[in-house]
Write a structure and sequence with these properties.
Length: 390
């Protein structure tokens, strides 16, 4: 393994010294500079000094009292030194801090106080992901699918959306966060492991162990299956943050089926998402629930990522879309047709609609995937035109 060069940012001098000893102690990395100031702007002189070292990794220490400065520093470093992988060292007790750090550009969030072993594992994960061509420092995009009300179709949308994304970018994962996971059933998979195994092995989870916990469909979609027993374990939001952090380093797209789970885990996934798809039927009870769910999920994040997906859509007289959008605080992003026979047969057979020949619903979800990735330069537009729902 080639030696990694590491730049350290820590305002506390003792912590700076400790981090340097720990980094050098891994014997796969060496400290090239240790800085006491947190850069707050691209023009700060410490940025230029650090650029001169071309570090492979930048370690930023997030101490409770200077967290906002550290988060700003992460943003600036991410912007100005894009070739370096950002690792944050911070408390695991504040899930919002973890989410903010990840959104600012950190690749690894490591518990503070840290150890040589934690750092070594993170360095090894970085090196092994860099061996995969095209994934250097890239973070996958997360799309979370959540129900306004139970049975609205979250799993159907999540499974088929993941298949559509997989067909244009072969690095897609489907994560089943539902209180009782149904994704494997929809895909006729018999997973040997589930998300419960991944969470209970977080302390030693690396990319190859995570990979071994995932099932694969014949088209190569990776599936982290859901729990087969309700409330088998109650992981903390920090546990999920760690899991998503690793997933985002490994996959280009991550589709999360939250179905009707409304807790810290769904909030966390929503906060990390490019888009949160709120699945609802166009009826009063469902739309009433959609407003409440959106409010709950937005309490720890912004609403601008929410989009309503009206499933089993048909025109209803008197249904005012603009009024609905205003009441829920989210735009209607998509309308999926009502095709009960096609969908229920697909679920019963374990062959999703996207794989059962050309159907109206298959085309609709393919177009939704296309819409969600319209700004993604890595997906060639031609790929979509070649893609057929068969
Ligand atoms: N577009 C559609 N047209 C017709 N029927 C649909 C459509 N989408 C879903 N359904 C039906 O709705 C039912 C629930 O679907 P699904 O399992 O995807 O929902 P869910 O929201 O994930 O449910 P849960 O709350 O149990 O997680 C299924 O029986 C399915 O056949
Ligand atoms: Mg479901």
């Amino acid at each position: 393994m080639p030696e990694l060069s590491v730049a350290i940012f820590a305002t506390d001098s003792d912590q700076r010294a400790v981090l340097q000893v720990l980094v050098d102690g891994t014997s796969v990395a060496r400290t090239v500079c240790a800085n006491s100031t947190m850069p707050q702007a691209a023009t700060d002189s410490v940025i230029h000094r650090t650029q001169a070292f071309s570090p492979d990794v930048i370690l930023v220490d997030i101490a409770g009292n200077v967290a906002p400065d550290a988060l700003r520093a992460i943003e600036v470093l991410h912007q100005e030194i894009p070739g370096a992988a950002l690792f944050a060292i911070g408390p695991m007790t504040h899930s919002q801090l973890i989410v903010n750090a990840m959104r600012s550009g950190v690749r690894e969030y490591i518990e503070r106080p840290t150890s040589t072993t934690d750092l070594l594992e993170a360095f090894v994960r970085l090196t092994s992901s860099r061996r995969k061509p095209g994934r250097e420092n890239r973070r996958g995009k997360v799309f979370t699918v959540v129900n306004a009300k139970g049975g609205s179709g979250a799993t159907t949308v999540a499974v088929n959306l993941a298949l559509a994304l997989q067909s244009v970018h072969s690095s897609t994962a489907l994560v089943d966060l539902a209180p009782l996971g149904h994704c494997a059933l929809h895909l006729n998979l018999k997973p040997a492991f589930t998300i419960t195994d991944a969470i209970s092995n977080l302390h030693r989870l690396d990319s190859s162990l995570l990979d071994s916990f995932m099932a694969r469909t014949d088209r190569g979609l990776h599936v982290l299956a859901g729990t087969p027993t309700p409330a088998a374990i109650e992981p903390s939001a920090s546990d999920f943050a760690r899991l998503f952090d690793m997933m985002a380093g490994l996959f280009h797209y991550i589709v999360v089926d939250a179905s009707s789970r409304l807790d810290g885990a769904t909030r966390l996934a929503s906060n990390l998402s490019e888009k949160v798809l709120l699945i609802a039927h166009a009826d009063v009870a469902c739309l009433w629930s959609a407003a409440r769910v959106a409010q709950f999920l937005a309490e720890t994040g912004s609403r601008d990522r929410f989009g309503l997906v009206l499933n089993r859509y048909r025109k209803v007289t008197g249904f005012d879309e603009a009024e609905t959008e205003a009441a829920i605080g989210a735009p209607v992003l998509w309308r999926i047709p009502n095709q009960y026979f096609a969908v229920s047969t697909a679920i019963d057979r374990g062959v999703p609609v996207l794989q059962t020949g050309s159907t109206e619903i298959g085309r609709s979800i393919t177009a939704l995937a296309q819409f969600l990735t319209k700004d993604d330069l890595e997906v060639k537009r031609t790929a979509w035109s070649l893609f057929k729902t068969v």
